[in-house]
Design brief:
By secondary structure, this protein is mainly alpha-helical. It has one domain (5-169): Four Helix Bundle (Hemerythrin (Met), subunit A) (Up-down Bundle). It has eight helices and five strands. It has helices spanning 5-34, 38-42, 53-62, 65-73, 87-102, 106-110, 130-155, 162-166, and strands at 75-76, 116-121, 124-129, 170-171, 175-176. A three-stranded mixed sheet has the order 1-2-3. It has a two-stranded antiparallel sheet with strand order 4-5. Helix 1 (5-34) runs parallel beside helix 7 (130-155), helix 3 (53-62) runs parallel beside helix 5 (87-102) and helix 3 runs antiparallel to helix 7. It is globular.
């Protein structure tokens, strides 16, 4: 049986965004318990040549809700590199992406599968079908930035496990586990 475009995109995004939201909540709780500065969390990097937590979270939203918007509009560009939010603002970015995606109708999303779009990177333009954009660009980037978010917070001592990242799994005939 083929996988629906909605399930490959929106359902996957929502599951991991729920996990990212929980990871961020645990990060805030850990910081409060230990008397740590959340703004330091926002600016923490796994490695000096990687972007900080701030960018990872913005990218999670951008490669989920922003990807759907890009497929609807036929154009997608990288997210802003501006480091202009605090931890609570980043939590709100994730919540907004979740709410926006949850409001989508599955039939509406299915119509995007056959469309096409252009990824614009400066003057460079890369043409994609929406299906190939989702499978070869959007989802890999989404999972990369979600994993990096988890990894940064884990590195900072937040008590996290794999289940925190995964979120609510779908079990059986589509019922939550």
């Amino acid at each position: 049986m083929p996988i629906a475009f909605y399930d490959a995109s929106v359902s996957s995004y929502l599951q991991v965004l729920e996990g990212v939201s929980g990871v961020l909540n645990k990060g805030a709780g850990h910081a409060a318990e230990k008397g740590l500065d959340l703004q330091q969390f926002v600016m923490t990097r796994l490695h000096e040549d990687m972007m900080p937590l701030h960018f990872q979270i913005v990218s999670v939203a951008h490669h989920s809700w922003g990807a759907i918007q890009g497929m609807q509009q036929g154009s997608f560009s990288p997210p802003s590199f501006a480091l202009d939010m605090d931890y609570a603002g980043l939590q709100a970015v994730v919540a907004n992406a979740r709410e926006s995606l949850a409001s989508l109708d599955a039939t509406q999303v299915e119509t995007l599968a056959g469309g096409s779009m252009v990824f614009k990177l400066g003057k460079r333009e890369l043409p994609f079908t929406n299906k190939n954009f989702l499978l070869s660009f959007s989802l890999p980037n989404f999972y990369f930035h979600a994993t990096t978010t988890y990894s940064i917070l884990r590195m900072l001592g937040v008590p996290l496990g794999k289940q925190d990242y995964i979120g609510q799994m779908k079990m059986g005939a589509g019922t939550p586990g």
